């Protein structure tokens, strides 16, 4: 995760997330969960529940969906930026999900890392929620979705700082 | 953001002679103030999950065209209700010399709102800076009130918020009315025959 201020017309802030790191993160988390999720014989459901290399395609699909879900909440401050959302075509290291918003230059700089982290959490929990839903694990899906919503709300509330115009 | 100027010589010299003053407001600066005020209000309108309704009620670049339309109508109100009596006696030659209309609203982002008024001999010229601010405050609060009304904030149970904005607008209107109509008593001379 990272953010960069880009000068231009208009000035913008790019929030970037390496899709391979995102894949690793959801893979790690779902593997731990799968380890605790056992059938009647006590067998951990690693094959069914954990995201592994075989699921890269679905992670890419869900990442695309998550990116539009999260960044559409910031569309009102992306006006004038062409192609404010970028999603990579493959899950490879060095390929980035990018969301851009206008840089109104009227915010406390300390708010950017916090927003960046909340966006990353949103993307991650959205992917996990959809994945668990597909795996038929309704409770886990609901729990991940609740975490997604909670991070989204905190991110949106923090975005107040980014929405203000610079008053001279 | 705003500023007034007198056509002709400095105010003190021409204090007791008829002259023309113009009130000018930069639209983009007004929009910035309106945007910021709307966001501060929207930050406190939360849904049941605690999410501030910034998208619904906060004004951003997206809403500039609509908000400028509201501002245009509010500015016309300012002119027709309070400032036009002061412009009534402007002659055609005076308006031509002024090089602007008595009331102008240039909708472009870098445009201005302009009012020309006749500050005649009994107009209290010392009130011009306060009148300047009162006009700006009225434009801002009336635009915000109409924005929140059109956004339906009262339908979400925030009637008090709308009432608060209305009272800010009314307060600005009161100041504007008082300042625009304020006159000084001229010194009277009596001739005894």
Largest sheet of chain B: 4 strands, antiparallel
Strand order of the largest sheet of chain B: 1-2-4-3
| H and E string of chain B | EEHHHHEEHH
- Number of DSSP helical runs of chain B: 6
| Total number of beta strands of chain B | 4
**What form of chain B results from the Cα inertia axes?**
elongated
The assembly state of the depicted protein chains is heterodimer
Strand tally of chain A, please?
4
Helical content of chain A (DSSP H or I, runs of 4+)? 40-55%
Low-confidence stretches of chain B are 6-17
Structural class of chain B: alpha+beta
- The fraction of residues in strands of chain B falls at 5-15%
Provide a count of the helices of chain A: 6
Mean pLDDT across the residues of chain A is 94
Any idea what the radius of gyration of chain A is? 17 Å
In whole angstroms, the N-to-C terminal distance of chain B is 55 Å
Largest beta sheet: strand ordering of chain A: 1-2-4-3
Largest interface: A-B, 20 and 18 residues
Class from secondary-structure proportions of chain A = alpha+beta
Specify the overall morphology of chain A: elongated
- Strand fraction of chain A equals 5-15%
Question: What this model shows, in words?
Answer:
The complex is a heterodimer of chains A (168) and B (193). Helices cover 52% and strands 12% of the residues of chain A. Chain A has a four-stranded antiparallel β-sheet. In chain A, strand 1 and strand 2 form a beta hairpin. The radius of gyration of chain A is 17 Å and the shape is elongated. The longest helix of chain B has 24 residues. In chain B, helix 1 crosses helix 5, helix 3 runs antiparallel to helix 5 and helix 5 packs antiparallel against helix 6. The chains are: A alpha+beta (168), B alpha+beta (193). Chains A and B meet through helix 5 of A and helix 1 of B.
């Amino acid at each position: 995760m990272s953010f960069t201020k880009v000068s231009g017309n208009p000035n913008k802030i790019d929030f970037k997330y390496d899709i391979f790191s995102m894949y690793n993160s959801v893979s790690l988390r779902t593997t731990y969960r799968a380890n605790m999720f056992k059938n009647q014989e006590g067998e951990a459901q690693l094959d069914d529940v954990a995201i592994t290399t075989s699921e890269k395609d679905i992670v890419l699909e869900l990442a695309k969906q998550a990116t539009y879900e999260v960044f559409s909440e910031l569309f009102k401050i992306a006006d004038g930026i062409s192609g404010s959302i970028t999603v990579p075509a493959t899950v490879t290291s060095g390929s980035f999900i990018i969301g851009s918003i206008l840089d109104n230059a009227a915010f406390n700089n300390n708010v950017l890392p916090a927003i960046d982290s909340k966006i990353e959490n949103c993307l991650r929990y959205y992917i996990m929620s959809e994945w668990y839903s597909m795996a038929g694990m309704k409770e886990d899906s609901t729990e991940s979705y609740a975490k997604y919503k909670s991070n989204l709300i905190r991110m949106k509330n923090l975005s107040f700082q980014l929405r203000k115009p610079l008053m001279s | 953001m705003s500023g007034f100027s007198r056509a002709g010589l400095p105010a003190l010299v021409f204090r007791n002679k008829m002259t023309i003053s113009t009130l000018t407001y930069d639209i983009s600066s007004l929009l910035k103030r309106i945007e910021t005020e709307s966001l501060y209000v929207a930050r406190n309108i939360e849904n049941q999950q605690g999410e501030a309704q910034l998208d619904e009620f906060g004004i951003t670049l997206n809403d500039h065209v609509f908000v400028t339309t509201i501002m245009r109508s509010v500015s016309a109100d300012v002119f027709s209700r309070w400032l036009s009596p002061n412009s009534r006696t402007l002659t055609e030659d005076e308006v031509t010399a002024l090089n602007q209309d008595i009331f102008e609203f240039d909708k472009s982002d870098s445009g201005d709102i302009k009012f020309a008024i006749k500050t005649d001999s009994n107009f209290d010229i010392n009130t011009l800076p306060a009148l300047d601010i009162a006009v700006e405050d009225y434009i801002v609060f009336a635009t915000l009130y109409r924005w929140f009304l059109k956004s339906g904030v009262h339908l979400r149970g925030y009637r008090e918020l709308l009432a608060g904005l209305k009272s800010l607008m009314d307060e600005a209107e009161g100041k504007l009315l008082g300042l625009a109509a304020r006159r000084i008593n001229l010194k009277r001379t009596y001739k005894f025959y």
